[in-house]
Amino acid sequence: MGRFIEGAERSQTTLLPECLDDFIAEDNPVRIVDAFVEELELASLGFEGTTPASTGRPSYHPAVLLKIYIYGYLNRVQSSRRLERECQRNVELMWLTGRLAPDFKTIAEFRRNNGEGIRNVCRRFVMISRELKLFTQAVVAIDGSKFKAVNSRDNNFTPNKIARRQEQIEQSIQRYLDALETADRTQPAEVEAKTERLREKIETLREQMRDLDRAAELLNDLPEKQVSLTGPDSRSMVSQAKGTGVVGYNVQVAVDARHHLIVTHEVTNVGNDRTQLSPMAKAARDAMGKKKIKALADRGYFSAPEIKACDDAGITALVPKSQTSGAKADGRFDRADFI
Q: In the Cβ-directed half-sphere of 333, how many Cα atoms lie within 13 Å?
């Protein structure tokens, strides 16, 4: 191949095989993950399976699965199927797990069955960060993101959605009834099959109307006037990142401004951020063990009562003032008319 750098022959054997540890540098983050998990008391943190059963097939230790979960979190590998593949080909995961490769069902069940334990691990990480003096600046940045739920838009109902859908169904029923009337007048032999199909469609639409009526009755008892059938806690909200509406959750995160460590997080179903400033700032203050902190947020968090609540709690909130105004909606002049 001339003067190119050439690789080793794949079939060449070596007298001294390489050690797997040689492929992992001393400053590789997986070494921190390994040391962190090994020092945890998983049983006291609420993890299942820390004591092996006396019968049956041996199971994976929760520490191995937790290392895989943390590695996937750090490297944006969320799918359990992708984590299974990475365990089989990724040298870092091979080193981290001791060449173990759990299947995707095992990884998924670990995440599903140990939610409380994983949250306790996150709290333990924040406590270690406090002990290492990583929160000395006492400055946090707060922001939120919309996460899509399993619930689809078709299974999310509001009074306006129900009214629009009922109007569409009524128009469809009327169209099918007109087609039936036309078929009854002509009555050719080949139209009989079509007539039967039209009756079935009409019955299906009427059943949908009854379902919508039941959903409307359910909405009358809810203060939020919104219901999701698949994910009851999910809500329809506007996502600026996608430029459209999404049925999901509003995930709030407070991050240390110096080291970019997540101090605390919370999942809500409130579509906007205006009421989230003081709760997140207070939770971050308590997690950092500080009496006074500074909280940074964008103008979506601007709310006079929230800023006042932060000030009363010893938190300095730095939030740009919102440029929106209700004056124009009320037919009056707004701030832009005087600039």
A: 5
* pLDDT at residue 260 greater than cutoff 80: yes
Tokens of 96: 């981290």
**Rounded CA separation 243/13 (Å):** 56
* CATH no., domain 139-148+235-321: 3.30.420.10
**Statement: residue 290 has pLDDT above 80:** yes
Residue type, 52: P
Task: Report the residue count for the chain.
Answer: 339
Locate the domains of the chain by residue range: 20-131, 139-148+235-321, 159-225
pTM over 0.85: no
pLDDT at residue number 335? 67
CB atoms within 10 A of CB 113: 13
Q: Token match 């979960």: residue? A: 69
pLDDT at 243 over 80: no
| Residue 9 neighbours by CB distance under 10 Å | 7
